[in-house]
Amino acid sequence: MIVIDYQDKRPIYEQIIDRFQILILNGALEPDMQLPSVRALAVELSINANTIQRAYSELEHRGLIYSVKGRGNFVSAQQDVVKEQQEKLLEELRTQLQVCKESGIEFIHVLDCVREIYQEVKV
Amino acid sequence: MIVIDYQDKRPIYEQIIDRFQILILNGALEPDMQLPSVRALAVELSINANTIQRAYSELEHRGLIYSVKGRGNFVSAQQDVVKEQQEKLLEELRTQLQVCKESGIEFIHVLDCVREIYQEVKV
Amino acid sequence: MIVIDYQDKRPIYEQIIDRFQILILNGALEPDMQLPSVRALAVELSINANTIQRAYSELEHRGLIYSVKGRGNFVSAQQDVVKEQQEKLLEELRTQLQVCKESGIEFIHVLDCVREIYQEVKV
Amino acid sequence: MIVIDYQDKRPIYEQIIDRFQILILNGALEPDMQLPSVRALAVELSINANTIQRAYSELEHRGLIYSVKGRGNFVSAQQDVVKEQQEKLLEELRTQLQVCKESGIEFIHVLDCVREIYQEVKV
DNA sequence: GTGGTCTAGACCACG
DNA sequence: GTGGTCTAGACCACC
């Protein structure tokens, strides 16, 4: 389910966050479904539990999962709201991009920005 | 200097704007250098003078050129300001992109947005 | 009567305590009225009996309820306790208000909050 | 500037966050002012650098500070963030007030609290 | 020097 | 068993 790419320059915890994010927003992980425990996933991926903890904390911060002490981490149930907000963000992005374009910023420069943020080298 | 691609879906005036923009920001056209007259360029490109006029108007609006009645159109001397503002816009764009990324919007969706705005099909 | 919110970060036993405290302080549960048995409530809420026990123990410690071995738990009859608990809540409120003040939130905004909650229009 | 209370049940990193948040929100720390380095503050407070790092990360996440690799952490210059954080504090206050109201604490007593903290005599 | 990531191991609170 | 916090120490990238 989760694969770590050590060739990837991004930190491990970020890879885990992104992977879970996609799985949750895709609907692959259903609301209230329990995630692997911090320790179990740490063992499975052969990495430190603190790294998993950090990833889960960020996912909780983003509202994608919720944690219950003594029980575990679970997929948040309000994913509709998330998708709604994403669409709003994309709409804002379009406006911003339109301004960039009208200000004479070239396509390639915008693309570099996107790649820079998303840490993607190739498209 | 200016080439029109009729295969290109974008309107002609936009192609002209973009081309001059690049030439000016690149420094190919130096400050206070005179641009071809509206009518001359219209004849050279075999297109309507109104189209050139529209392009020049937009370039003036963007602060890239300035026009002097009875004399012609000239490259604006304050290109530093332009680049500065562009950098500010890119910085804002980076912030926005970061928010998008952290909100779980996938790389591909952002890319679609960029392509949509910039009317580019392939990268 | 009691609802558990697993999204809430507070531990379950604390949620139960708070809920009962409110019900007792505002008089919804009358003095000497019997509370649900530990086991019954545990089954009803589908949680561990130890958790209910812990909540009841804390409520007894606060003097809000008293337990009789072999019979059950009952609402305390002493009104002094009520005022004591209310004073604790006010103390917490003072702390929160202090933070608000130190964070530069103006008096008038806090006042609006109070009026909003208490549905009072004029002072 | 920063004091840790080991009697306080809250985690150390949270105490640090709250303290800095107050200092930034009320303007005691001016925009673009540099914060103590992670390691320096760790030594000063005799706690682990990771704990400071965590606090700074959260402050950056809230937009209250920004970090520059190799240079340090600095107070954010965006005032929007300040209002946002203040609104969050007010939201917490509303929750607390709701509990007070539900616990049968009268309007006038809450009002006295507010006046007491804000040192206002009349409304 | 600075921030940022990761590890190994510990302790606590919760259920 | 679970998550959450903290420590000590390491390594990297940046300036």
Tell me what the structure shows.
- The structure is a homotetramer of 123-residue chains.
- With 123 residues, chain A is mostly helical.
- The first copy, chain A, has two domains: 12-77, Arc Repressor Mutant, subunit A, CATH 1.10.10; 80-118.
- Helix content of chain A is 59%, strand content 7%.
- The first copy, chain A, has five helices and two strands.
- Chain A has helices at 12-26, 38-45, 49-61, 79-102, 107-118; strands at residues 65-68, 72-75.
- A two-stranded antiparallel sheet of chain A has the order 1-2.
- In chain A, helix 1 crosses helix 3 (49-61) and helix 2 (38-45) packs across helix 3.
- The longest helix of chain A is centred in the C-terminal third of the chain and has 24 residues, at 79-102.
- The mean pLDDT of chain A is 89.
- Chains in contact: A-B, A-C, C-D.
- Chain A binds chain B through residues 21-22, 24-25, 62, 64, 82, 85-86, 89-90, 92-94, 96-107, 109-111, 113-114, 116-118, 120, 123, and chain B through 18, 21-22, 25, 62, 64, 82, 85-86, 89-90, 92-94, 96-107, 109-111, 113-114, 116-118, 120, 123.
- The structure holds a DNA duplex (15 and 15 nucleotides).
The greatest inter-chain interface is formed by: A-B, 36 and 36 residues
Order of adjacent strands in the largest pleated sheet of chain A:
1-2
CATH superfamily of the largest domain in chain A: Winged helix-like DNA-binding domain superfamily/Winged helix DNA-binding domain
Please tally the helical runs of chain A, counting DSSP H or I stretches of 4 or more residues: 5
User: Which percent range describes the beta-strand content of chain A?
Assistant: 5-15%
Number of strands of chain A: 2
Distance between the termini of chain A: 24 Å
Question: Assembly type of the shown chains?
Answer: homotetramer
Which outline of chain A best applies?
flat
CATH architecture of the largest domain in chain A: Orthogonal Bundle
Could you estimate the helical fraction of the residues of chain A in percent?
A: 55-70%
The value of Rg of chain A in angstroms is 17 Å
Question: What would CATH call the class of the largest domain in chain A?
Answer: Mainly Alpha
- Extract low-pLDDT stretches of chain A: none
